[in-house]
Amino acid sequence: MSQEPNVAPYDSEPEDHSFTRRGFVKVALGGVCAAYGVAVAYPVYRYLNSPVEKAAAASKVREVKLPDADQLPKGSALMFKFGTAPALLIHHEDDTWVSMSAVCTHLGCTVEFQPAQSRIFCACHGGEYDARTGAVTGGPPPKALEVYTVTPMEGGMTITRS
Amino acid sequence: MANTYEYLDDRLGLSDLKALADKKTVPLHRGSYWYYWGGISLFCFIVQAVTGVLLLVYYRPGPEAYESVRQITNEIHFGWLIRSAHNWAANIFLFSTFVHMFSVFFMKAYRQPREFGWWSGIALLLLGMLFGFSGYLLPMDELAYFATKVGLEIPNAIPLIGPPIANLLRGGLEVSEFTVQRFFALHAVVLPALFLPLLMFHLYLVQRHGNALPVSEEAKPAAERKSIPFFPNFLAKDLAMWLITLNVIALMASLFPWQLGPPADLLKPAPLGIKPEWYFLSQFQTLKVIGQWIPGYAGEVFGMSLFTLGLVLWFLIPVFDTRSAKGNRARMATYFGIFVLTVLGLTTLWGYLAAA
């Protein structure tokens, strides 16, 4: 690349004249454009993001009351919504109660309690979890399902998470 | 940078566009101000398209129409602003289109070879009014309901084929959720599909023939006529106008946000002082006045025929006005324009005062 640079007259001004009228107008114009861009983009972003904000607020729920959940037969499970996400309440054969998130930690599919194998299974990629502790027992999931606290209440169950 | 430009230029022909932009000039004279109004209309249309798509994100036509607009207005962040901007931009669009049309008329810019610009422009204005009419129903509040009910009486007045047409548009014998659903299809799909190609055609013609000169200006010797380059001089001014328009829309939308009335109710009587939007007020008032002279169905038909005749005359002005086509002053055409403008203005004002 031995080509002579094609120097325009504006660029050949000495360094100390960098703050020219032209430069000032350019910066001011750019600033005004940016300000308008933000003034338009911000309401549009908040507008589109509205349901996300609503869901985020709903997902912050720490406690869910499940009326009549105490009627759940032994060896079966109940799906419920904890905030915005699905969760499991399992009544084991030995009369213990366990509740945990039903969202597979691998890629977010909803898992299923399989009483015959006494395991929690994700059909998407074959993830397996322990039905009492939520620990991964097989397949690709990187970590255990989050386990919640189950407290019996008058006519139902209360599920809480820390 | 230079390589990127070369790469794209080889494949897309950017330098052709640049040559076109360099060659294009805009005439400079006493009436140059009027050249901005088409651009303002175009900008409003772009705002309409953008805010329209945004409203589409939450709007639900059919039985839930009112509730979804209530949510947009009251619950979704800035929903009121998007909705108001859509409404205000619609009104400013129609206003600037009217100004554009009359300025074209009085400059006799419809004269040859620009007849198709005039015709496509009127078609665009009529589509714009249909946009206004169909969009007005979508919130399905009380005003929307009665406006549509009354508006559909117009096709209803066409002898014989009128009532079936009105029923088809309504999707029933009364304005209902079926009406909202099909007006929505019209407003968000059918009308844009018609409007966009027509707009491209209109803009192509503007590009093809350039800005029209008033007859008096054209009579001057070429050396006395002034012009400025389109790029960047006129474009910069055009963009400044767009910025002003954006500010006006934002200001109006913030200071006078569009209201949502009580939900439409078949069993509720029409509210007192109900009147259509300003761009239908002239026809509304004329029909009302004619109805007092010629009562009943005959009056409606007479009124409709009158509007149709007026529109056809207006549409065909490039054919009638042979004088300006030859570069002569066309006083009759000017008087006709002043007459139409006066009638529209007075009946609109009358309608406004009568309803107030």
Number of domains of chain B: 2
Proper CATH architecture of the largest domain in chain B: Up-down Bundle
Query: What portion of the residues of chain A fall into strands of 2 or more residues?
Result: 25-35%
Distance between the termini of chain B: 62 Å
Choose one word for the global shape of chain B.
globular
Strand order of the largest sheet of chain B: 1-2
Order of helices and strands of chain B: HHEHHHHHHHHHEHHHHHH
Secondary structure: number of strands of chain A: 10
Calculate the mean pLDDT score of chain A and round it.
90
How many helical elements of chain B? 17
Indicate the structural class of chain B.
mainly alpha
Layout of SSEs?
The complex is a heterodimer of chains A (162) and B (356).
Chain A: H1 21-58, E1 63-67, E2 76-82, E3 85-91, E4 97-101, E5 112-114, E6 119-122, E7 127-130, E8 136-138, E9 147-153, E10 156-160
Antiparallel strand pairs in A: 1-10, 2-3, 3-4, 4-9, 5-6, 6-7, 7-8, 9-10
Chain B: H1 2-12, H2 14-23, E1 25-28, H3 36-56, H4 65-74, H5 79-106, H6 115-137, H7 142-151, H8 153-156, H9 162-170, H10 177-209, H11 215-218, E2 226-229, H12 230-255, H13 278-293, H14 297-315, H15 317-320, H16 322-325, H17 331-355
Antiparallel strand pairs in B: 1-2
Helix pairs in contact in B: 3-5, 3-12, 4-5, 5-6, 5-12, 6-7, 6-10, 13-14, 13-17
Summary of the model, kept short:
The complex is a heterodimer of chains A (162) and B (356). By secondary structure, chain A is of the alpha+beta class.
Report what the structure shows.
The complex is a heterodimer of chains A (162) and B (356). Chain A has 162 residues and is α+β, with helices and mostly antiparallel strands. Chain A folds into two domains: 17-58; 63-160, Rieske [2Fe-2S] iron-sulphur domain (Rieske Iron-sulfur Protein, 3-layer Sandwich). Helix content of chain A is 23%, strand content 31%. Chain A contains one helix and ten strands. Chain A has one helix at residues 21-58; strands at residues 63-67, 76-82, 85-91, 97-101, 112-114, 119-122, 127-130, 136-138, 147-153, 156-160. Chain A has a six-stranded antiparallel β-sheet, with no helix packed on it. Chain B is mainly α. Chain B has a two-stranded antiparallel ribbon with strand order 1-2. The A-B interface holds A 36, 39, 43-44, 46-50, 53 and B 54, 57, 75-79, 81-82, 243, 246, 250.
